[in-house]
Amino acid sequence: MKPVVVQEETTGCGIASVANILGKTYSDTKKIANGMGICASDKALWSDTQYVRRMLKALDVDTSHDEIPFSSWDALPDLALLSIKHHQENGKNFWHWVVFKRVDGQSFVFDSASYLSSNLRTDFDNMQPKWYIEVKCITNMNQWNQLADIFGCKWEEDSIPECAADNICIAWPSIIECIEQKSDTLINGNALDFGCGGGLFCQKLHQMGYCVTGYDESEELIEKAQINTPQEVTITNSNIVAAQKGQYNLITSIMVFQFIRDIESTIKTIVSLAKPNALIVYAVFNPEFVENNLNGSTFTGLRDEKTRYMELKKGVVIPFYNRTSTEYGSLFAKFGYKEIYRDLPVFTDIFLSQYQMPFSTKYPEYLIQGFRKGNT
Predict the structure, then answer these.
(1) Residues 251/183, Cβ–Cβ less than 8 Å
(2) What is the distance between the alpha carbons of residues 243 and 241, in angstroms, rounded to a whole number?
(3) What pTM did the predictor assign?
(4) Which residue among 134, 158, 190, 197 is buried most deeply as judged by most CB within 10 Å?
């Protein structure tokens, strides 16, 4: 379990609670909050739940619509925001934010107050919550931590790990072809691998001559990536650090976009980090591949809805959004980008003779697209 984040401002319990939910530092969460116009010193926010909801929503975390009256500790969901020290001043409600977590059947309260001798609390009788807000989803972050053994595997040139074989043998060649065909003079420039996972493609980009930054939100995968990449590669789960590395000549993202619900906001962030002539290339699921494998052992979902579910490990079910190349093209067009590359790389006979896939390989698994600013 990660250490409890302690608030660095007297009235920063809301920001600290968001940090404790997401596993981020206080300073990183504060920067995100400030970028949204949210400051701990703003008295208008001290008796308001919306700013915490806004921050969580912006980070793709769902919460219950209403504050739910507290009845008992056992009745709480596994993750919730709690209001304690509830009181009124001049007819206004005020409280102190804390985070309730139930881990392997054990209950804890993450209290960010700096004066406490221990910020991980189990003295439940001393706390009197007024209400709680259920925290429903954390952007699949915890699920990706649970899949770190699959996506954090190590790769040597002479030995391709089975867990990443389709990625390395099928998707990578197409992405590398796009980079080599469309990058022009971008070699030796700055490259960002967004959603770098175990860092394998960061390693490849480094070998190709790029100055590489790898970004991922999963702490477990970040640890794997730091092991898998040379010291010259920057690996981080801080979007602040990724942004501080400057604008990028090349931005790659392999099997990430389909897992992001608010993809337009993500694309907006990515293009803001790109140099004017930058190449953006990514891989996502080919929608036809998903539909052909729907309701099998790996993919499930209703055919009349966009949301699908992937289960690579029993009990770890991750939602994703089965978007088409046209939908992605329209989103990038909003920011002035034009599609300059598209590929649907097929499963080769050689590959299928060496690796056994847990799904039908009738249709290509990957949709690869490359984009560049329209006037460059």
Answers:
(1) no
(2) 5
(3) 0.64
(4) 197
Question: Letter for the amino acid at 305?
Answer: E
Look at strands 92-103 and 106-110 and give their pairing: antiparallel
What would the two tokens of residue 318 be? 């991750």
CA distance 166 to 163: 8
Whether 79 contacts 23, CB under 8 Å: no
SS3 assignment, position 342:
strand
Query: Do residues 361 and 186 lie in contact, with contact meaning Cβ atoms separated by under 8 Å?
Result: no
Task: Give the mean model confidence (pLDDT) for residues 358-369.
Answer: 94
Count Cα atoms within 13 angstroms, Cβ side, for 162. Answer: 7
**C-alpha of 339 from chain center:** 24
> How many CA atoms are closer than 13 Å to the CA of 343, on its beta-carbon side?
19
The Cα–Cα gap between 122 and 332 comes to: 48
Residue with tokens 């640890």: 223
Cα dist. 66→61, 79, 81, 134, 286 in Å? 15, 15, 12, 9, 38
Give percent above pLDDT 70 in the chain: 89
Give 223: exposed, middle or buried? Use CB within 10 Å, 0-12, 13-18, 19+.
Answer: middle
Q: Could you give the 3-state DSSP secondary structure of residue 286? A: coil
Residue that has been written with the tokens 């990449």 in this structure: 229
DSSP-derived secondary structure for 81-127: EEEEEEEEETTEEEEEEEEEEEETTEEEEE---TT-S-SEE--GGG-
Nearest to 154 by CA among 219, 205, 221: 221
* pLDDT tens string 230-288: 999 999 887 776 776 668 999 999 999 998 888 998 999 899 999 988 999 999 999 99
Amino acid at 38: I
Place of tokens 């079910």: 317
Residues 6+ positions from 368 with CB-CB distance below 8 Å: 171, 174, 175, 178, 281, 282, 283, 341, 342, 343, 344, 345
Residues 218 and 282: beta-carbon distance below 8 Å: no
Terminal-residue alpha carbon distance, the chain:
48
